[in-house]
Design a protein that fits this description.
The chain is mainly beta. It has one domain. The chain contains no helices and 9 strands. A 5-stranded antiparallel sheet has the order 1-2-9-8-7, with no helix packed on it. A 4-stranded antiparallel sheet has the order 3-4-5-6, with no helix packed on it. Strand 4 and strand 5 form a beta hairpin. The protein is globular and about 30 Å long.
Length: 99
C-alpha cells in the first residue's frame, strides 16, 4: 500500500471535468458545454447538474445540492464551495471536513 505524502497529487480527469487535488481537497473545473459533466475525486463522484451565473447544482456522492457562488455547503464528510462561474466553466472546491 502506497503512502501519500504532502504536496499536490496528480490531477484526475472525468467526463467534461478536470481536477487538481491535494491530500485534503480538490479543485474541479467543469465544462458547462458538457451534459452531465462528472468526475470521481476523494472517493466520491461529483457531477455538475446545472448552473446559472449565481449558483450551481451539484450531485456529490449521490446527494444533490445547490450552492451559491462564493458560499460553501457541507455534504456528508465534505465541504463544497463554488469559486467561479463563467460562460464556459464552473470551478468547485471540495475539501474533506464537512459536518
Amino acid at each position: 500500500m502506497a503512502a501519500l505524502t504532502g504536496g499536490a497529487l496528480a490531477g484526475c480527469s472525468g467526463e467534461g471535468a478536470t481536477s487538481t487535488c491535494s491530500t485534503t481537497g480538490c479543485t474541479i473545473t467543469f465544462e458547462r458545454s458538457v451534459t452531465n459533466a462528472k468526475i470521481s475525486i476523494l472517493g466520491v463522484e461529483v457531477q455538475l447538474v446545472s448552473a446559472n451565473q449565481d449558483s450551481a447544482t451539484l450531485k456529490v456522492a449521490g446527494q444533490e445540492v445547490t450552492v451559491q457562488r462564493g458560499n460553501g455547503v457541507s455534504v456528508g464528510d465534505f465541504t463544497v464551495k463554488i469559486t467561479e462561474i463563467t460562460d464556459s466553466q464552473v470551478v468547485v472546491q471540495v475539501d474533506r471536513g464537512g459536518n
